[in-house]
Give the backbone structure.
Amino acid sequence: MVTVEQVARPRPSGAVEAQLWDLAATVVDPEVPVLTIEDLGVLRSVRVDGDQVVVQITPTYSGCPAVDAMRDDIVTALGAAGHERVRVDVVLAPAWTTDWMSQDGRSKLEQYGIAPPAPRRTDGVVSLGLGVRCPHCGSLHTREASHFGSTSCKALYICQRCQEPFDYFKEH
């Protein structure tokens, strides 16, 4: 069985692959443009296979409409750096989880006005689910207005304190 920790940050150790990773990591999520695909944890691996660069991504869910844009943007970013042959493979297993999102990515979401998902606990402690924190005023006095927000991975919430609506990036 593969654990989240085994697949969470597979950054390459070789110099060439690390440089290619850094190039691919500049690609932003087309649905949440403050996040890179690295912040989101969608970028899984980058390797050289002969004269071709092979990049693996795992979408936030199997029907994610942003995958084609991410693929095109990865090819464009690597192509602009002189890599003519780029293949982007979409890998669905193991399934993406919000645990793969970086802490920097969570902070960027909050600064952008989207409530980030809480990291899942792995120490056996059960969370009481006290609520979703408003990214505008910090209040936990919020309510879900719609389970589906502007994208499938977000829900729409309203803060009862500041009355501002906001998206919540749902835990997966």
Q: What stands out?
A: The first strand starts at residue 43 and ends at 49. The beta strands are 43-49, 52-57, 86-90, 114-115, 142-146, 154-159, 165-169. The domain at 4-99 is CATH 3.30.300.130 (GMP Synthetase; Chain A, domain 3). Helices lie at 4-7, 15-24, 37-40, 67-80, 103-112.
